[in-house]
Amino acid sequence: MERTLNKRSGSQCELCTATENLKVYQVLPTKKAGADESILACTTCIDQIENPGNEDQNHWRCLNESMWSEHIPVQVVSWRMLSRLRNNELLEQMYLDEDTLAWAQATGEGEEDENKVIHRDSNGVILSTGDSVVLIKDLKVKGSSMVAKQGTAVRNIRLDHDNAEYIEGRVDGQTIVIITQYVKKI
């Protein structure tokens, strides 16, 4: 996949065009986790994407260019960052089809703070899509004889955007809904 993304991007960050410290970044939530759901980005961009409130406004001037990319994952990340930075001028110029816009909004980016559903673990730590958590209690899985054991790590969680108490994750190869009060972020 990295080779495909290097070829697609000309071996540069698909957001800011940096040529050093490049990594594959999966644009969550993913279905196939392939090149069509990933971008090649520098560590500076990835750090600021993954740590809201840590954005350098000057660094993100690059979105003037990247928002016009022909590659959908680049458009999605550009839309999310423009929303986070509250750059309505550029957002109004940007066009995304319905499916792409739904993907861009899937992480809750762009919602007003009072409307945003915030998921918190048992310690009050905010959870995000893609985080890893550990179960703090044995949980019986409804509709199954399975018991998810305390201490089980659940990686790459997905958030329920309608209910702050529910997350989804895979335990023993099965996707289950987990109540946030029974998990701790790793």
Provide structural commentary.
The protein has helices at residues 2-9, 43-50, 63-66, 72-84, 88-93, 98-105, and strands at 22-26, 38-42, 133-135, 139-140, 147-148, 153-154, 158-159, 166-171, 174-179, 183-185. It is of the alpha+beta class and 186 residues long. It has six helices and ten strands. It is elongated and about 50 Å long.
Characteristic terms for this protein:
186 residues, alpha+beta, 3-stranded antiparallel β-sheet, 6 helices
In short:
With 186 residues, the protein is an alpha+beta fold. It has helices at residues 2-9, 43-50, 63-66, 72-84, 88-93, 98-105, and strands spanning 22-26, 38-42, 133-135, 139-140, 147-148, 153-154, 158-159, 166-171, 174-179, 183-185. A hairpin with a 2-residue loop joins strand 8 (166-171) and strand 9 (174-179).
